[in-house]
Amino acid sequence: MNQNSLKRTLSFRHLVFLGLAFMTMMIIFTTYGIASQVTQGMVPAAYMIVLVAMLFNVYSYGRMVKVYPSSGTSYAYAQKAIHPNAGFFVGWAIMMDYLLTPMLNYLVVGIFLSTAFPAIPAWLWIILFIIVITTINVLGVKIAANINFLLVIFQFSVVAIFAFLCIKQVMGGMGTGTLFSSLPFYNPDVPFSAVTAGAAILFLSFLGFDTITTFSEETINPEKTIPKAMFAVVLIGGGLFIFISYIIQMVFPDFMSFNDVDAAGFEVVSAVTGNLFTSLFLAGYIVACFASATVSHAGISRFLFAMGRDGVLPKRFFGYLSPKLKVPLFNILLVGVLSLLALMLSMDLLLAFINFGVLVAFSFVNLSVISHYFIREGHRGTVKNTILYLVIPLIGFCINAWLWTNLEKSALILGGSWLLIGLIYLAYLTNMFRKSTPQMNLENIDESEAV
């Protein structure tokens, strides 16, 4: 057994639930208010656009994980398939993205629990959650995966009860009074640009399938298991988002009547279900954030481990693997400490950074497929190969670029500033580009290890 390799214990089921936990099924209630107003009541249509975009991205991730099944991240793919410098910048962009995602969950938990229990300040909830989730990740990823299995089941149960109550209310005459309408998907009075603007907001809901690739070294038969798990996560999550947003539109069609756009999801829940279910819903939402924070904390820890093992980050610290626990212990603890920044960062700032990093990652994974298969390997002699290795990933890249045009200026400014800092660090790392950029050593990994 390679002493610097992670232990293979994760199956298809583990990965699906890790991905669904990270996606946070109940995030639809967080974004519904602003998305419904931006799309003018066509949130389901916006979700369909994002689902299509995600399927193209999943395809490209699946192609690349077959080539580089170890430490599968967009960073590794761009580094190996395009150029080490491209890999560095992708890694640099999504490093901040991954670091901020658990902070976002901690911040949301603090906000909602302090609202429900005013006597306890938000900062105390945030610190408590950070301590608990850091401890879970120190104990090992399989424990985190098994815990998330239960948490995801609870989320699904809460959402299912909510959907049932909505359908019951609509059939009783509430809202539109009908369960069938094409307006949430096609409304000639709503410009298509409004729907695409909503899609740019909602693509964050699908984050999670890409995090699955960070567990490649802990997955049994990753070349086959990871692509199947990614498709399953996106299809399950996308179907749920479209269905729930449609049901909400039917039961609460007046998207301009919310008292607080940020809390619109909770207003709908309260109006439809009453106080008892609202309490259950709050519990489900907190569970969702807990599950997502657990997975995202684990994911960024392993991402930092991969970069540390490469020498892109200081190897002695970031490349350290606990001999006993077989987890990147220092990274897990570091992420826990950095997550305390949730005490002082705003929601808008966190979302802006995350949006930017995600689109960088998705775009370069599509380009990696073209570079590796179509250009380097020469799979372009047939129409089939041209479609598989050029047309499909190129469409995925173009959709991501299209969504990029809908990002707020603040996201572009903050993301560009972060990349500039990365350029300065790369110049230092390579002695003003006179040395080559450190690359991932995939030969370190023992591919046969499985439990």
What are the salient characteristics of this protein?
Putrescine/spermidine ABC transporter, 451 residues, mainly alpha, transmembrane, disordered C terminus, Amino acid/polyamine transporter I, 16 helices, transmembrane helix, AA-permease/SLC12A_dom
Could you characterize the architecture of this molecule?
With 451 residues, this protein is mainly alpha-helical. The protein has a single domain (12-440), classed as Amino acid/polyamine transporter I, CATH 1.20.1740. 69% of the residues lie in helices and 0% in strands. The chain is globular, with a radius of gyration of 22 Å.
What are the low-pLDDT stretches, counting only 5+ consecutive residues below 50?
A: 442-451
Estimate the strand proportion. under 5%
Largest sheet: none
Q: What is the CATH H-level superfamily?
A: Amino acid/polyamine transporter I
Architecture, CATH level 2?
Up-down Bundle
CATH topology: Amino acid/polyamine transporter I
Mean pLDDT: 83
N-to-C series of helices and strands: HHHHHHHHHHHHHHHH
Count of individual domains? 1
Helical coverage, percent range: 55-70%
SS field, number of helical segments: 16
Gyration radius from CA atoms, angstroms: 22 Å
The structure class reads mainly alpha
Per the principal axes of the C-alpha atoms, what is the gross shape? globular
N- and C-termini, Cα separation: 12 Å
Number of strands: 0
The CATH C-level name is Mainly Alpha
